[in-house]
Amino acid sequence: MERRKVGILGATGMVGQRFIQLLNNHPWFEIAWLAASDRSAGKTYSEACKWKLDTPLPGRIGGMTVMPNVPEGTPEGELPKIIFAALDADVARELEPKFAAAGCAVVSNSSAFRMAPDVPLVVPEVNADHLELIEEQSWRRESGGYIVTNPNCCAIGLVLALKPLEARFGIESLFVSTMQAVSGAGYPGVASLDILGNVVPFIKNEEEKLQEEVGKLLGTLASAKVELLDAKVSAHCNRVAVEDGHTECVSIKFKKKATREEVLAAWSEFAPLAGQRLPSAPDQPVEFDAGVDRPQPRLDRMRGNGMASTVGRLRECSLLDWKFVVLSHNTIRGAAGAAVLNAEVLARLGKLEVKNRVRQRDAVLV
Ligand SMILES: NC(=O)c1ccc[n+]([C@@H]2O[C@H](COP(=O)([O-])OP(=O)(O)OC[C@H]3O[C@@H](n4cnc5c(N)ncnc54)[C@H](OP(=O)(O)O)[C@@H]3O)[C@@H](O)[C@H]2O)c1
Hints:
This protein is 30% helix and 21% strand. With 366 residues, it is of the alpha/beta class. Strands 10-6-12-15-14-13 form a six-stranded mixed sheet. Helix 1 crosses helix 12 (332-348) and helix 7 packs parallel to helix 9 (206-217). Bound molecules: NADP nicotinamide-adenine-dinucleotide phosphate.
């Protein structure tokens, strides 16, 4: 099968680098275009980027030229139809619509459009049916392009563990306290003097994002709208001195009582993508570890090639019903890997065949 050409917007950052690592030998996608800020445009990727991953920067990618950050900066016909975006929210708010308007499928990591009513916020194992929302977007009608988003890095690992529980027992209320890795703040991120030997009990806007995104992800699509999950969610978010991997301590109350065996069965039997043969989908999206001191970021973040959520320490809660710990890799499952999996599902659904009805620059001339 011929691989589809893809681009990466924000290619030099922490998430952009993960995109390169995950897409470099992807069986369906081929990196054909890279862009970052004006600081990087015109340089080769290896000149523009401080490569921070523990696999070598692929030689072909290092020699590619970083392009300007607007569709018009690329010669006609050379802009890929699939753009993976890893931009800060303020930049994404301005740039992502330009690519959608130019007829691209924008698969975004940013929070800029996650809660927009016509933009799908998707984790494929949880709510792939919400992808239908792209048909409501004006870009889709006018140019064929659209925006699809994946959630905040904490919300992804958490909702994977919650979805099978919500489906069987219903969630009434949820309390979650996070311990988030420094790579979640991008590069250079938190100053070393602030985080070494320390815990910072504040991450701007993170608690609000986590609470509202859980409601949308576990919500129901009806009449081209998402009805939010009717549950109380309270989050505490903390930055800790861990390189990669977000750990979350969860207490949960169900609408219907559940035994320990029933909770464990809900997790172990959760395989909503089984049989679809998506290259990035883990065989077991939620893995339970019975060890008394697991999961731990250093030991468990790479389960399922970094795409699985690991749960452990399931025990009764004296305030709510049950409590447990969940861990996931924040730049793989929590960011780039999540977007790549979203694109794989879009490919299976035939929604990457974006028709180039009008290019943006042509639209201006008409
Ligand atoms: N890190 C995580 O664990 C994580 C998880 C989930 C979601 N996210 C989200 O993913 C996005 C990227 O995060 P990150 O951690 O990769 O951030 P980062 O390391 O700070 O990287 C930001 C990227 O955006 C580029 N950029 C900045 N201004 C730009 C502009 N005006 N035009 C085009 N490109 C511009 C930067 O390019 P230059 O190198 O040229 O400056 C860089 O490539 C954010 O929205 C973040 O919230 C991150």
